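Here is a protein:
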Amino acid sequence: MGRIVLITGVSRYLGARTARTLSADPHVDLVVGVDVVPPPFDIGSTRFVRADLRTPAIQQVVASYGVDTILHAGVLQTPASAGGRAAMKEVNVLGTMQLIAACQRVPSVQRLVIKGSTSVYGSSASAPAMFVESDDRFSSPRGDFSRDSVDVEEAARGLARRRNDISVSILRLANVIGPRITTPLTRYFGLSVIPTILGFDARLQFLHEDDAVASMHHAVLSEAKGAFNIAGDGVIPLSAAVARMGRPPLPMPGFLTAATGALLGRVGLVDFAPENADFLKYGRVVDTTRMCEVLGFDPRFTTEQAFDALVERVGGGLIGSDRIDRAEGALRTAATAAMRVVDDRD
């Protein structure tokens, strides 16, 4: 008998794609996709159920379908996607708690997979050259998404302690990029002039969107337990990424990063939240030994190949010309302010 899988966040790009691939897998009998709105993407033969994770209704869905495996891909990355920070935290933390409660109470559940993020490690000057999963001394990440991701992981580990008959896996995905997915980072690299932080050259690691989907599919059918860093091989410096993109960099003094981010946010282009600014300042690299040796997953694309897929996409036009004009205007304003401050200091 095949798996009965429930996927949260099925109305978002990665959730929908994973639902589609799982619904076509012969080892899966049924895929139930849950979200508050119908998915705008093809989800194959997945059965969509409208439900809000923040309510106890999710327990009824899990029980009624006899779900044995849950993929939690419903953690939101930005406040804009939820309608504000308060709603984002409710969806991410309260929604996860309701889902965990359903796992604990419904006896048919045997496996939980969490779509997490390497953002739990944060980005700082004191960070190690490479993060490993056993390092749980997270550097108090500053961003909303990072803090929520830490809370989600803690809830999942709590379930694993209370119900040792449920296998729990946490996939800490590196920044996902590719030819179709849109994130704050893909928007950043799509700018016609790319702001960087003067004096820093972050070491970056990426995960191709196809590998993100494949890793979740693989983890659903696996029995591996624990946390796993998921990323493409290799590292690319920010300076090399900007050069590969073929866009001119605009080095900004560090003390103007927040002002630059606010300007870009107001024109509706880039979420330059503190965690994203830290990432572009210090970078983040993770060890993927457990991914290969314990989870048994090997990404098809390296970090450079994943980034090249984004380069090809941007070359075809990631951002409309009107939005580029607004971005250039915002960056010119920020650059003028930076030069004025530097001149005054001299």
Observations:
- The chain has twelve helices and 13 strands.
- Confidence is low (pLDDT under 50) at residues 318-322.
- Residues 3-176+208-231+286-298 form a domain with the Rossmann fold fold (CATH 3.40.50.720).
